[in-house]
């Protein structure tokens, strides 16, 4: 009896482990640097398919060059749109993959949809627990009755470090270039060899065949050169006033320019045929590699329990109430790519890599009247992240907020602790890794912190500042242009044009106003700088000799412990401030960083930059629909959080459909402009 019980326990234990193994989640690749979740349950309610379908049909029709869309109702593709979707991208030196995971609610409908979008002649492959097909050379899709996976794969053969190779080549080239000069050797000029020249020109044709449609005219010219050289053994003598197309002597019969892609086989150029075969062979080999990579990934996924095992750090700042969540690993994106390799060639490259060694998460919300994006930034090194957070804990200054007004286009305000920048730089240096000068740099930073009084520096500019863009004005400026006659003689011409000039006020707080007054006094009294810098009471003016630029005059003033830099003398005048302005004023002094910009007002100021009728139509359309952007940023726990809001101004049912409606109007306007006859 005891034996039977023990055997039963073993069987149950074995089945438990087998079940756990069979239901194991698929682990995401270790080199994932982008992850996105789409909340289909919420987004599905916000999409108006009656509007969305015609847009998708038109886009896919244009993309494939067809008169009729391949699919009529994109709300019925067999994909469960009110379920979550998962997207991620992995990246390494040789393979880059973008993957998208969907839930299928109608397998037959999904396969029907796939058949409508895949290339003709491509057969669906059926495996034990899924089917798959390639939609293009680098796009693959696999599915069963529950899930579908789309993969876009790029593969590059691994290669050695080209930067080092390039450096070696450069050194060799330099040695070759210097040797003749140092030895004072003069090589005799070689006689002209027309046969060698013909070979060079044929090589040029071989290169031009790669983009034959765009280079027909150039090929025709080179063929003319070849015919001339074969007959005369030299290029035609240059005559005054002659052009490249005027040859002396007999008329040359020129081969017709190559036709389009489908007529290339008739060219009968052995070099091109060999090149084409080689390219076709490389494409086939690359496709085999891509197909193998896709199959391996599909096997791994469909042999799991069809759930992704997402690392917790990727979803640490995800809000379940957001419509879209995105995670990005900037550290891997920058440091593991070509940029990271390049920076590692320099002594201080690790410092820049240390700056980018961070993660960012985004929660996106499509609300009724606005789009909201919340970004959470976190450096991977806790010490560096702490130093960033300390910078965001500056004092508030309400005096600067008085510059905000109703008529302004926008503003950007900061209230940070300027004395903490040294700590941040020191933390970045320590986190830079094994750099050749890391110890020396750390010592320099320590010395600077000792020699320079951080509190004294903070008094000069504590970290409170604001930039207010009041309006955009138009200004006529003079500039010099050059015209040429038929003999290419240059003639200098004076012209005028309208340029957009920003009317702005930049101000920052100071606890040492005397320091700034002494700087401005020095500029106004120094022999060299006083030519452009002058003083009138407590107002200092910088002015260029000629009014040729859009910013040729600036005004400076120190008042009430604030330094002002203005584009006009009346930059300090307090303008109308409504209840809405007072809200902006409150936010500008509350948050470490905040701002707002009225895009509609900005486009009004840029109106003269749009010249043609079609450009002005586009401007009117965009200006009618664009809204206002505002943002605020602050330190929250172990992250820096920035909230960005974009308010919409049209009659769309929500902010998601606002973008589709705007895209639809822009598309229709462009199509109308194409159909208008040219008179």
Automatic annotation (TrEMBL):
Record keywords: Coiled coil, Signal
Signal sequence range: 1-22
Coiled coil: 205-232
Positions with biased composition (Basic and acidic residues): 233-243
Region (Disordered) residue spans: 233-265
Keyword Signal among record annotations: yes
Protein name, per record: Uncharacterized protein
């Amino acid at each position: 009896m005891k034996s039977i019980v023990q055997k039963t326990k073993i069987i149950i234990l074995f089945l438990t482990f087998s079940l756990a193994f069979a239901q194991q989640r698929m682990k995401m690749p270790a080199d994932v640097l982008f992850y996105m979740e789409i909340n289909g349950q919420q987004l599905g309610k916000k999409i108006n398919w009656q509007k969305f379908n015609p847009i998708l049909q038109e886009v896919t029709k244009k993309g494939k060059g067809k008169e009729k869309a391949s699919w009529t109702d994109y709300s019925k593709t067999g994909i469960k749109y009110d379920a979550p979707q998962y997207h991620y991208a992995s990246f390494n030196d040789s393979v880059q993959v973008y993957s998208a995971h969907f839930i299928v609610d109608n397998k037959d409908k999904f396969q029907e949809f796939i058949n409508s979008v895949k290339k003709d002649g491509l057969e669906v492959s059926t495996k034990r627990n899924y089917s798959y097909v390639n939609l293009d050379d680098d796009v693959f899709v696999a599915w069963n009755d529950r899930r579908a996976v789309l993969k876009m794969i790029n593969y590059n053969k691994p290669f050695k470090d080209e930067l080092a190779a390039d450096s070696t080549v450069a050194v060799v080239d330099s040695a070759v270039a210097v040797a003749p000069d140092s030895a004072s050797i003069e090589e005799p000029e070689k006689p002209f060899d027309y046969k060698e020249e013909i070979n060079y020109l044929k090589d040029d044709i071989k290169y031009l065949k790669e983009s034959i449609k765009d280079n027909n005219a150039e090929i025709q010219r080179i063929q003319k050169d070849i015919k001339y050289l074969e007959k005369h053994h030299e290029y035609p003598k240059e005559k005054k006033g002659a052009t490249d197309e005027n040859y002396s002597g007999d008329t040359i019969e020129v081969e017709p320019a190559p036709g389009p892609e489908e007529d290339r086989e008739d060219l009968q150029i052995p070099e091109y045929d060999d090149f084409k075969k080689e390219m076709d062979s490389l494409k086939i080999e690359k496709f085999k590699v891509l197909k193998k990579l896709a199959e391996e990934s599909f096997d791994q996924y469909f042999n799991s329990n069809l759930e992704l095992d997402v690392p917790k750090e990727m979803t640490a700042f995800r809000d379940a109430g957001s419509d879209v969540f995105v995670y990005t690993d900037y550290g891997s994106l920058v440091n593991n790519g070509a940029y990271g390799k390049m920076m590692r060639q320099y002594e201080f490259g690790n410092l820049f890599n240390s700056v980018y060694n961070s993660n960012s998460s985004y929660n996106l919300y499509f609300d009724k009247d606005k789009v909201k994006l919340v970004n959470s930034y976190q450096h991977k090194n806790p010490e560096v992240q702490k130093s960033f957070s300390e910078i965001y804990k500056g004092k508030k200054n309400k005096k600067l907020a008085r510059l905000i007004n109703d008529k302004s286009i926008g503003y950007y305000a900061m209230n940070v602790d300027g004395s903490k920048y040294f700590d941040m730089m020191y933390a970045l240096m320590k986190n830079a890794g094994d750099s050749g000068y890391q110890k020396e740099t750390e010592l320099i930073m320590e010395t600077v912190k000792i020699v320079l009084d951080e509190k004294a520096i903070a008094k000069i500019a504590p970290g409170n500042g604001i930039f207010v863009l009041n309006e955009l004005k138009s200004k006529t400026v003079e500039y010099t242009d050059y015209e040429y006659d038929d003999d290419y003689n240059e003639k200098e011409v004076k012209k005028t044009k309208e340029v957009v000039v920003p009317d702005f006020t930049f101000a920052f707080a100071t606890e040492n106003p005397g320091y700034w007054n002494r700087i401005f006094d020095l500029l106004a009294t120094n022999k060299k700088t006083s030519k452009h810098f002058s003083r009138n009471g407590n107002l200092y003016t910088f002015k260029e000799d000629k009014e040729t630029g859009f910013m040729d005059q600036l005004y400076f003033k120190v008042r009430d412990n604030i330094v002002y830099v203005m584009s006009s003398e009346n930059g300090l005048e307090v303008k109308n401030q409504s209840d809405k302005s007072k809200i902006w004023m409150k936010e500008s002094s509350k948050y470490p960083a905040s701002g707002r910009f009225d895009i509609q007002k900005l486009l009004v100021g840029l109106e003269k930059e749009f010249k043609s009728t079609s450009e002005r139509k586009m401007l009117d359309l965009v200006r009618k629909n664009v809204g206002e952007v505002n943002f605020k940023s602050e330190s929250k726990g172990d992250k820096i959080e920035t909230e960005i809001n974009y308010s919409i101004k049209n009659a769309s049912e929500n902010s998601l459909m606002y973008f589709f409606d705007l895209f639809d109007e822009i598309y229709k306007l462009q199509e109308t402009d194409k159909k208008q006859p040219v008179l």
